[in-house]
């Protein structure tokens, strides 16, 4: 399908900001934003008769999840030396709280000592019903590392609470210098009447777990790039699902939002650059922003990586036609202009897997020495059919790529949420599969040509049941340690 491009009027957005679009009228929905699937409702097992449902039954406990980690050997067998239970599974309880919010996680990374750094959200303390941001660290063997943020009352983790407001942590990473960067966003009152607006929030920690005071304000960047200069008008919204670090130390974000003064309720992919100290860089894109709007409907950035030339490869979703959401890749130059690359139109490419709801949610990069690759995963969904995982592996040096549907099961519901490269360039995609109504962690290993590596697990796939009983359970991220062992991370129903 040939698609002609045009630019939306800049005057209707924020003067000077770069916006890319295509000409097509569309109505559409939003992609799925839930990190944890809902278990198959099915038939309630062992529901029986409530023997304590009288007047003294009380209030049922609020639902809760723990973070869960599974380590595999290089052949896909479970490494039972990981964790304290002898079954290769480690759990992290972030604490109790009120309301129905659940603990969740979006990404994991490792440092030079193979310690596992986790980027998550937890139930807020007290009577609050929202969430706070958490960065936690486990030892290489899966125990909470209490030397991390050791001066706090919650050893082993850093918890951010900004004025009692709900914080939405997303992706994060460990820098080469050991510092830790967590991206996300916060819904904060704008000061205009009763309005609130989403703002970019990033946190940088030293390798000890203490805040890095050289970044932002006491280690925290709280930014409203789309603030309006008119005190009577609505602010724009901006979210940072991820940040990629360039060789200069600057951070380029991806996410979605809407510039100040733009009518409607739809969102565009938005990207900003901040200096190593956390200052918005007006030289990026145009006046500090790159905005991608396909058709006037919802377009969303979910993750990003910086490549060797400091260009940025983003993934997410776009809406090119009514009731049709496609997986999307975006490639911009180091300075936020649409990159000229094979197969991309004005810096982006849509991936249509013949279903109405599709998105990439995670991306990773790898340099083989002879070529640089990116890999992205996500899902393809249609009401009434099982969801399936999708995979993109692209050689950004040559433009050659594999893209396709790669289900963990041909007969069950599954989605891929996380991706990484192994030390040898193999691609690991992780997520969940629902078998008999019971969710399981799932992971597959692929060669660079997109074929499954059948030396891993059973036909290239491994599933692990962290908790039985048709309860919440999904892997969200994966990291490979320096010895080649694979750690899958996600959330599972609290025990």
The proportion of residues forming helix, as a percent range, comes to under 10%
Helical stretch tally: 0
CATH class: Mainly Beta
CATH architecture, by name, is: 6 Propeller
Oligomer: single chain
The biggest beta sheet reads: 7 strands, mixed
Distance between the termini: 50 Å
Q: Give the total of beta strands.
A: 31
User: Poorly predicted ranges (pLDDT <50, ≥5 residues)?
Assistant: 1-32, 34-57
What is the mean predicted local confidence, pLDDT? 87
- CA-based gyration radius: 22 Å
How is the CATH topology named?
Answer: Neuraminidase
Estimate nothing, just give the exact number of structural domains.
1
- Secondary structure class reads mainly beta
Shape: globular
Which labels suit this protein?
495 residues; mainly beta; Neuraminidase; 31 strands; signal
Task: Outline the structure in words.
The protein has strands at 5-6, 18-22, 65-72, 89-92, 104-110, 116-123, 131-138, 157-160, 167-174, 180-189, 196-205, 220-223, 237-238, 242-245, 251-258, 268-274, 289-292, 300-306, 312-321, 324-332, 348-351, 357-367, 372-381, 388-395, 401-405, 413-421, 427-435, 438-446, 461-464, 473-480, 486-493. With 495 residues, the protein is mainly beta. The protein has a single domain (63-493), classed as Neuraminidase (6 Propeller), CATH 2.120.10. The strands form seven sheets. Strands 1, 2, 13, 14, 15, 16 and 17 form a seven-stranded mixed β-sheet that branches. The chain has a four-stranded antiparallel β-sheet with strand order 4-3-31-30, with no helix packed on it. A hairpin with a 5-residue loop joins β5 and β6. The N and C termini lie far apart (50 Å). Residues 1-32 and 34-57 have low confidence and may be disordered. Keywords: Signal. Pfam families: DUF5122. Residues 1-28 form the signal peptide.
């Amino acid at each position: 399908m040939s698609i002609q491009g045009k630019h939306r009027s800049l005057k209707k957005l924020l003067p000077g900001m770069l916006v890319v679009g295509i000409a097509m009228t569309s109505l559409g929905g939003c992609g799925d934003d839930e990190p944890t699937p809902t278990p198959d409702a099915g038939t309630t097992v062992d529901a029986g008769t409530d023997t304590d449902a009288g007047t003294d039954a009380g209030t049922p406990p609020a639902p809760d999840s723990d973070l869960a980690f599974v380590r595999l050997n290089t052949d896909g067998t479970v490494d039972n030396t990981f964790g304290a239970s002898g079954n290769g599974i480690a759990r992290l309880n972030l604490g109790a709280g009120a309301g129905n919010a659940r603990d969740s996680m979006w990404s994991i990374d490792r440092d030079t000592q193979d310690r596992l750094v986790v980027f998550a959200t937890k139930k807020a303390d007290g009577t609050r019903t929202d969430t706070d941001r958490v960065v936690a660290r486990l030892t290489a063997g899966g125990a909470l590392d209490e030397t991390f943020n050791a001066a706090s009352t919650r050893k082993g983790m850093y918890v951010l609470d900004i004025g009692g407001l709900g914080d939405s942590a997303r992706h994060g990473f460990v820098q080469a210098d050991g510092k830790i960067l967590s991206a996300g966003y916060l819904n904060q009152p704008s000061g205009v009447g009763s309005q609130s607006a989403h703002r970019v929030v990033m946190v940088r920690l030293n390798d000890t777990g203490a805040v890095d005071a050289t970044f932002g304000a006491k280690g925290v960047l709280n930014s409203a790039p789309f603030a309006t200069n008119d005190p009577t008008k609505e602010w724009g919204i901006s979210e940072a699902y991820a940040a990629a670090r360039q060789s200069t130390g600057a951070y380029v974000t991806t996410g979605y939002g809407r510039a100040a003064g733009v009518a409607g309720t739809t969102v565009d992919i938005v990207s900003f650059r901040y200096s190593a100290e956390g200052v918005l860089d007006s030289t990026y894109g145009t006046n500090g922003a790159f905005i991608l709007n396909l058709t006037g409907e919802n377009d969303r950035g979910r993750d990003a990586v910086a490549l060797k030339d400091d260009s940025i490869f983003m993934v997410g979703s776009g809406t090119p036609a009514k009731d049709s959401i496609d997986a999307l890749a975006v490639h911009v130059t180091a300075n936020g202009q649409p990159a000229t690359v094979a197969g991309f139109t004005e810096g982006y490419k849509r991936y249509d897997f013949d279903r109405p709801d599709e998105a990439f949610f995670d991306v990773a990069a790898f340099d083989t020495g002879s070529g640089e690759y990116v890999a992205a995963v996500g899902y393809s969904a249609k009401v009434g059919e099982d969801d399936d995982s999708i995979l993109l592996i692209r050689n950004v040096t040559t433009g050659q790529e594999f893209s396709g549907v790669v289900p963990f099961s041909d007969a069950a519901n599954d989605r891929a949420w996380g991706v990484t490269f192994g030390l040898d360039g193999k691609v690991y995609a992780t997520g969940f599969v629902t078998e008999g109504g019971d969710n399981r962690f799932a992971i597959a290993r692929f060669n660079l040509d997109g074929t499954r590596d059948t030396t891993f697990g059973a036909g290239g796939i491994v599933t692990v049941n962290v908790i039985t009983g048709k309860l919440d359970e999904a892997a969200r991220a994966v990291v490979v340690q320096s010895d080649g062992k694979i750690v899958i991370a996600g959330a599972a129903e609290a025990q």
